[in-house]
Design goal:
Largest sheet: 6 strands, mixed
Mean pLDDT: 84
Number of strands: 20
Keywords: ATP-binding, Cell inner membrane, Cell membrane, Membrane, Nucleotide-binding, Repeat, Sugar transport, Transport
Pfam families: ABC_tran
GO molecular function: ATP binding; ATP hydrolysis activity
Number of helices: 16
CATH topology of the largest domain: Rossmann fold
Oligomer: single chain
CATH class of the largest domain: Alpha Beta
Protein name: Monosaccharide ABC transporter ATP-binding protein, CUT2 family
Low-confidence stretches: 257-264
Strand content: 15-25%
Structural class: alpha/beta
Strand order of the largest sheet: 6-7-8-3-9-10
Shape: globular
Number of domains: 2
CATH superfamily of the largest domain: P-loop containing nucleotide triphosphate hydrolases
Length: 491
């Protein structure tokens, strides 16, 4: 993979870029020059305009104001074709793979020049070569149907496809929340690769709410706030605290541990047996407990959550359960419904009287609930009667979380619920979870962010589809978690 731009040379320039959607000013007066061979981190709260700016850079959106230049030459008409000619590739937050095609066939969608005799063999070789370079030990052969892949594997394929060179060189790759579906080990592989390709002259743009990743790899950080440039931070002296301050957010350290916050345990005790008899795992929880699922991504955590959900919702079960989906595009949002309709859906199914009057919905109650949670969890970017897809990915995730907590469920299953959520909102969510657990709700929480396990009472570490170890909260450091994720459990 070789870029033909010398390190430090201006690659793509933005001057006075503005973009409006209806009454929403998504971008205003953005000035920035992306230079070859650097890694630019982009940070900001949900709805700050990060993904919109990247869509402009990728040629998906045409700016309403301002100009773009390529190699210091203004471009009169900059669209997706112009971006591709400039060497721009993009991994969007919402993945774009075709589920009914194989990994190899998806390669040809982005690279149509792969055609003619032997195209499949060539496409497979290119994809596997790139996967091997970025994610050693990925375990994919290219023939898999995308629909059969885990969310982590889809993310890996999307990233590898963007960096693959067939004919036109790759000069700039946009990575929009690329590690949101990856575990710590796989994310570290990607970040190491990003630094390596920057040294070869390829520019990488990393958008992430995991500020430690930006601190680790970025040469410069563009901090956005409400569609504008809030700050431009250099590499020297870059810290997570500096990024948070530039975002205009103040995040206090958690003042108490889970042990200090723990409410007295009630007698209610839940037990679930997961998996076939030969490899069965037992998950236990008491009322008011927060249980974490950990381990490398794709080791059976989501399947365990689904098994618990099926058990809790079968006929005769006494538990009221809510599920926060990790793959919001496929399993979370109803794309044709409004924000409000998506939020109140589980609440309408609650047991309390008055929410439905025969065939009618308690509209006043639904509006009050929507307004309350809009404020409580900071849903921003569109009116609540607007379509759910008008929100940024992070704000859509907030709606899914609000849907679960606004319900009457006493058991809440969460499949990596803070994917794509900004740091301020994450801490608000942590406080909400602790508060609701103190009131007697039970949470089972799968997370790919190991730091979040500190908010749990215990963590079940999965490997190869079953529980490998059970750790107390104080044991959940990086070294112990990594060892528990890889070690062989005695039969």
């Amino acid at each position: 993979m070789v870029a033909d731009s010398r390190p430090g040379v201006a690659l793509i320039g933005l001057a006075g870029i503005g973009k409006t959607f209806g009454q929403v000013k998504a971008l205003s007066g953005i000035d920035f020059i992306f230079r070859s061979g650097e890694c630019v981190g982009i940070a900001g709260h949900n709805g700050a305009g990060k993904s919109t700016l990247m869509a402009v850079l990728a040629g998906v959106y045409t700016p309403d104001e301002g100009t773009l230049s390529v190699h210091d030459r203004p471009v009169a008409h900059y669209d997706a074709n112009a971006a591709r000619e400039a060497g721009v590739r993009c991994v969007f937050q919402e993945l774009s793979l075709c589920a009914n095609l194989s990994v190899t066939e998806n390669m040809c969608i982005l690279h149509p020049e792969l055609k003619g005799y032997g195209w499949r063999k060539k496409a497979t070789a290119l994809m596997r070569e790139q996967l091997d370079e970025i994610f050693p030990g990925h375990g994919l052969n290219g023939a898999e149907l995308v629909a059969d892949l885990t969310l982590t594997q889809r993310q890996m394929v999307e990233i590898a496809r963007a960096f693959t060179v067939v004919r036109a060189p790759v000069r700039l790759v946009i990575l929009d929340e690329p590690t949101s579906s990856l575990d710590g080990h796989t994310a570290a592989q990607l970040l190491t690769f990003v630094r390596a390709v920057a040294q070869r002259g390829i520019t990488c743009i990393l958008i992430s709410h995991m500020l430690g990743e930006i601190e680790r790899v970025a040469d410069r950080v563009l901090v956005m706030r409400d569609g504008t440039t809030a700050a431009l931070l250099p590499r020297a002296g870059l810290t997570q605290e500096a990024i948070v301050r530039a975002m205009g957010q103040h995040v206090e350290a958690d003042p108490q541990t889970r042990a200090a916050n723990r409410a007295p345990r009630e007698a209610a005790h839940f037990t679930w047996h997961i998996g076939p008899a030969a490899r069965r795992s037992t998950i236990e929880a008491t009322r008011g407990e927060i249980i974490g699922f950990a381990g490398l991504a794709g080791q059976g955590q989501t399947e365990a959550l689904l098994a618990i959900y099926r058990s809790a919702t079968r006929r005769g079960a006494q538990q009221r359960v809510a599920f926060v989906a990790g793959d919001r595009a496929s399993d979370g949002v109803f794309p044709l419904w409004s924000i409000s309709e998506n939020l109140v859906l589980r609440w309408l199914n609650g047991a309390q009287p008055g929410r439905r009057k025969r065939l009618f919905v308690d509209a006043n109650g639904a509006r009050a609930l929507t307004s309350d949670w809009q404020t409580k969890i900071g849903i921003r970017g569109a009116a609540m009667n607007a379509g759910i897809l008008s929100l940024s990915g992070g704000n859509q995730q907030k709606v899914l979380f609000a849907r679960a907590l606004a319900s009457d469920a006493d058991l809440i299953l969460m499949d990596d619920p803070t994917r794509g959520v900004d740091i301020g909102t994450k801490h608000d969510i942590y406080q909400l979870v602790r508060s609701e657990a103190a009131r007697g709700r039970t949470f089972i929480w799968y997370t790919t962010e190991n730091d979040e396990l500190a908010h749990c009472d215990r963590a079940y570490v999965f490997r190869s589809g079953r529980v490998n170890r059970v750790l107390d909260a104080q044991e959940c450091d990086e070294e112990t978690l990594l060892a528990a994720s890889f070690e062989e459990r005695a039969a």
